[in-house]
Structures are given as structure tokens and as C-alpha cells.
Amino acid sequence: MNDQTLPPDYLEFAEELADAAAKVTLTYFRLPLEVENKEAERFDPVTLADKGAERAMRDLIAQRFPSHGVLGEEEENIAGEEPWTWVLDPVDGTRSFISGIPLWGTLIALNDGTRPALGVMDQPFTRERFIGDGSTASLNGRPIQTRACRNLADATLMVTSPEHFQQPPYSDLFSKLSSEVRLVRYSGDCYAYCMLALGLVDIVLDPGLKPYDIQALMPIIQGAGGVVTRWDGGDAQNGGDVIACGDPRLHAQILELMQSS
């Protein structure tokens, strides 16, 4: 299908979803909290904040737009009767959340059947709300843009965790990039991508993302002038190994490096 025009009330509704999630997450943040592990082979935490925030958003979607689909991290996917699908990550950065560190956020995307047409990253503790539609991006209503950075030597690189880059070929790539950039920082999750859109970070690199990890961030970064793709240069909306760059020239340079390594 072709891209659809985004109805104006959809942005307002996306912000209502963010408000509903915030009421849940702020109830639990920096308080004693039971943590479950979703996987046997590694620590993949989930809390009542994750589950409750997603449930609150799903309830609102079911009431207001029952024909829309829902793709979320904590519950089963719902196929819609229309092309529109809400893509939800109630707490992106749960490890930071349970550690009391405000490098987490609620991710809300609206996919029109072709692409994420709207993205919201809400950090209710710091009262920051990033919004993008692929053409424009804002922080709390103020327009934002990425910064120019053509060369690796001038770049700030962020990755969620160094443990993701311990084995080849990931280790080889990370060794190459980290040795050439000016600065490397860790543990940003969705917050790192928004700092890229704000013009404070130049590269964010993550392997093995899910659609709900990246779809909300794509319209924000693209609206601020940046680029988000898979490591092979393909569409990142379905997740996988993802790279985001604030400067398209730097993105092209890194893709070439990846393909040659």
C-alpha cells in the first residue's frame, strides 16, 4: 500500500497513550520492585511497570481505535482490520529502570502499513517527550535536528551494551569503530537515539533489535535529519542489526566499512 496521510487526531492520541503509560511507570520507578526474568539463557527483565503500562495503552487503543492492530513487547500481537498498527514498548531500557537510572522511555509508534509514520519517545521522569513524523521532530514542542559530523574521528558512538559485541563478526566491527571515534558511551537504549536526534550523539549501533525497539525512534531521527537502517543498509522497521547516524555522509561511510570488513 502507499503511505497514508496521518490523521491529526492520531498524534493527540499517541500523547494520550504516553500519558497513560507514565501514570503506571512513575508509580514504580525508584521503588522496591519485583523483577521477573523472561529468558532462561540470559537476564531479560520485566516488571509490573512494563506489563501495566502496556496494558493501559492497549485498553485505550481498544476503546478508541478497535480496528487498529497492536504490536507490543509484553502481550500477543493483534492484527487490525485497517493498515494502522500501534507498536508499543512500554519500558525500553528496563535494566536502567530497575537500577533507578532514567535512561529508559516509553516507545509508541504508529505504522501505516508501509512504515512507521509517527513516533513518540516519552521519558516521564525527566519530563521529556520526543515526537517525529519522518519530516519533522521535536522535544517538548521545540524543533530539533541532528548535527553535522562527516568523519569518524569527530564522532560520538553509543551502544546499549558492550556484551553484544563480544563475538565475531560483531567484535571485529566494534573494535574498528571504537578505535576510530572520538568518544564511546554505553547503556542509552532509546535515550541514545533521542540524543542523536537532539544533535549530541553521532552514531548509535545495536544488534538484534525487535520492531518495538526501533519503530518509534525512526520517525524521530529521520524527522531530525538523521538516517536509520539495518547494517546492510536495508529497512530497519522490522528490527535486526540497526545503525543510526545523525549525518547521512557518516552513515554511508560506516556502511562501506561494514561491507568491507
Automatic annotation (TrEMBL):
Cofactors demanded by this protein? Mg(2+)
Output the GO biological process annotations, alphabetical, semicolon-separated: L-histidine biosynthetic process
Q: What Gene Ontology molecular-function terms does this entry list?
A: histidinol-phosphatase activity; metal ion binding
Q: Where does Mg(2+) bind?
A: 73, 89, 92, 213
- Give the record's keywords alphabetically: Amino-acid biosynthesis, Histidine biosynthesis, Hydrolase, Magnesium, Metal-binding
Q: Which catalytic reaction applies to this protein?
A: L-histidinol phosphate + H2O = L-histidinol + phosphate
Q: Which CDD domains match?
A: Bacterial_IMPase_like_1
The question of whether Hydrolase is a record keyword is answered with yes
Query: Which InterPro entries does the UniProt record give?
Result: His_9_proposed, Inositol_monoP_metal-BS, Inositol_monoP_superfamily, Inositol_monophosphatase-like
Q: Which family does it belong to?
A: Belongs to the inositol monophosphatase superfamily.
Designated name of the protein = Histidinol-phosphatase
> Lineage of the native species?
Bacteria, Pseudomonadati, Pseudomonadota, Gammaproteobacteria, Pseudomonadales
